[in-house]
Every structure is written in C-alpha cells, then in structure tokens.
C-alpha cells in the first residue's frame, strides 16, 4: 500500500477486542480500509492483541496508557475493556482524543457520569460534562440502520415530518435495547423528551411509557412516542411512525414499509451500508476535526436513565 494512502487515512488505536471484534468490527474496518488505518492495538490478552495487530500491520502496546499517548494516533476505538474494568474508563475519557465507545463498554461508561460529583459547584460539573461530550462518541447504531436512514429520506420526500411513534417489544428486552429505542425517538424528533409518563394494564399484561415532545410550532399539536412492552410474543421490535403526509413501519434493521395518499411500498435494504460502517466513518470525520453532528455521551446517559426508570416501573 502506498505511503500516500497511509498518510491520507485516519490513524486509530484499537483498545479491547472480545467477541465484538470477530462479529462486527473486523469486517467494518476491512470495508473502510481506504479511510482507516489502525496503528496501535491493546488488549488485556496479549496473544490476542498480537494476532490482530499482525492482521492490521499495527503495533502492539503492553498497556492502556501507551495506546492512549501514542502521538500518531488520532482517535481511539474502544471495543471492550475486559478485566480492566471501570478503572480504565476515566483514563480513556481524559485522553484528549476522540473516543468511539462500542456497545460492550457503554454500560460501564455510565459510571463516568458521576465523576463531576467531586466538584462542588454547578459550574464545575457543567464544564466537566461538556468536556466529556466533546470527546466521547457512543455507538448509537439504531440511528443509522438501513431502515432508519431510508425513513429519513422518506420523511424528506414522501411522508413529511414525524408526528407520533409507537414501538412494540417484549418485556424481556434489556435496558441497553430500551435506551437505544429512547435515543432513536429523541433523535428522530430532533430533541429530548419534555416529559415521561409510565402506565401499566394488568388485564392485558402490558406496560407502556409515553415520551412527550414539544410541538414543532405553536399551531401544531404536541408529539409523543409510545413504547409498549408485552409479556407475550417473541423478541421482535415493531416501530410505527405516523407523519404529516403518511406513515412507515420498521420491523427489522433492513425492512421498512411505507405509504402516503398515492404510493406504498415494502422495501428490503440488504445492500445498503451497515450502521457500524456509517458510525466509524462519522467518527473518523470528527477525529480529523470535522464538525459533523455525532451522538453525544450526555444523550446516551439521558436515554439510559429513562430506560432504567421504565424497567423499574414494569418489573
């Protein structure tokens, strides 16, 4: 590979491997090899780190700190922390480099939201949270599934702005799934919910959570997203979106059905870019100074808190 191509690619450090590396991230980085260059690999299991580093023509470092301070690294992909645990999270968050946080570390990273508590003034706490937001990009993949991307295209061209969202899922889904759905609704609506209302119907063994969103303009009605959790049925998730000029239903990450007053279609989007490809590409743009909007750590924290409150109300 030419030296020019190496210089043009975004230089990343890879921290932690685990099952996610084989299942998801290896293939994504391979597809993005013209844009991404992994320069450093660290994993608590040294033999695993050496194997992956050899595949990527990267250096192995013996510790987490060495990976973080490497001057040639422009950003960090944190895929798994293994036995390093929460003690490594503070170090990573203070590395002064953009950090992509994969799903396996997000629950651990929630504890970082508490670090401003050592500062006794509201101003110091606000500064700390803002600073974390500048560097940490959580993997909010539901925003960029092929079906979600197609929905935004349809909203712009065929069915208009979103008015109501209804999500149906099983009660057995975990907090991580619920928080992703909450974030998806907030992102589609364009802002955080202004209120959350919980309810439960014992007769139908159904629990629901309504996220209230402010109206787009004073002349329009308020908008809401309703999450319905049932005790029966499979683990599939069905999302119905009512818009100004039509509606759409998402039943899978690659499947969407939609209709308006004159048209309708059932689409399967298996040939589109994956959400992981899009997220890593966005992260690389941010790592080299781009201003493109990306998911923020504070958004993830807010979504998790709503998801936790829902589970507390239905369990």
Number of helices: 11
Largest sheet, if any? 8 strands, mixed
What is the CATH level 1 assignment of the largest domain? Alpha Beta
Name the poorly predicted regions: 1-5, 112-128
What key phrases describe this protein's structure?
8-stranded mixed beta sheet, alpha/beta, Dihydrodipicolinate Reductase, domain 2, 6-stranded parallel beta sheet, 14 strands, Rossmann fold, 2 domains, 40% helix, 315 residues, disordered N terminus, 11 helices
Brief rundown of the structure:
This protein is an alpha/beta fold.
Q: What is the element layout, followed by pairings?
A:
Blueprint: H1 3-8, E1 10-15, H2 18-31, E2 36-42, H3 46-56, E3 59-60, H4 64-69, E4 75-78, H5 87-93, E5 99-101, H6 103-109, H7 122-135, E6 136-138, H8 146-159, E7 162-170, H9 175-189, E8 195-201, E9 206-213, E10 223-230, E11 238-243, E12 246-252, E13 255-260, E14 264-268, H10 275-287, H11 297-314
Parallel strand pairs: 1-2, 1-4, 2-3, 4-5, 5-6, 7-10
Antiparallel strand pairs: 7-11, 8-9, 9-10, 11-12, 12-13, 13-14
Describe this structure in words.
The chain has 315 residues and is an alpha/beta fold. It has two domains: 3-139, NAD(P)-binding Rossmann-like Domain (Rossmann fold, 3-Layer(aba) Sandwich), CATH 3.40.50.720; 141-274 and 304-314, 2-Layer Sandwich (Dihydrodipicolinate Reductase, domain 2). It is built from eleven helices and 14 strands. Strand 2 (36-42), helix 3 (46-56) and strand 3 (59-60) form a beta-alpha-beta unit.
């Amino acid at each position: 590979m030419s030296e020019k191509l190496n210089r043009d690619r975004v230089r990343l450090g890879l921290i932690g491997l685990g099952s996610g590396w084989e299942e998801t991230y290896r293939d994504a980085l391979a597809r993005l090899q013209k844009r991404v260059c992994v320069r450093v690999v660290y994993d608590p299991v040294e033999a695993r780190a050496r194997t992956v580093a050899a595949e990527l023509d990267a250096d192995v470092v013996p510790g987490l700190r060495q990976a973080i301070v490497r001057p040639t690294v422009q950003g960090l992909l944190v895929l798994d922390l293994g036995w390093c645990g929460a003690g490594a999270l503070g170090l990573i968050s203070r590395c002064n480099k953009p950090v992509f946080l994969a799903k396996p570390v997000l629950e651990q990273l929630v504890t970082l939201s508490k670090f401003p508590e050592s500062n006794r003034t509201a101003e110091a706490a606000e500064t700390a949270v803002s600073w974390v937001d500048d560097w940490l990009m959580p993997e909010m993949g539901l925003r960029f599934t092929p079906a979600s991307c197609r929905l935004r295209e349809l909203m712009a061209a065929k069915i208009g702005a979103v008015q109501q969202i209804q999500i149906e899922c099983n009660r057995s889904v975990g907090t991580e799934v619920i928080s992703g759905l909450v974030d998806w609704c907030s992102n589609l609506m364009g802002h955080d919910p202004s209120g959350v209302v919980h309810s439960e119907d014992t007769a139908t063994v159904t629990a629901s959570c309504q996220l209230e969103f402010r109206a787009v303009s004073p002349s329009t009605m308020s908008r809401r997203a309703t999450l319905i959790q049932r005790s029966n049925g499979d683990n599939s998730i069905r999302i119905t979106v009512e818009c100004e000029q039509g509606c759409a239903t998402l039943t899978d990450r690659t499947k969407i059905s939609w209709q308006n007053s004159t048209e309708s279609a059932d689409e399967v989007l298996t040939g589109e870019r994956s959400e992981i490809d899009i997220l890593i590409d966005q992260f690389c743009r941010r790592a080299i100074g781009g201003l493109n909007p990306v998911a923020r750590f504070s958004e993830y924290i807010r979504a998790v808190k709503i998801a936790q409150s829902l589970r507390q109300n239905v369990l």
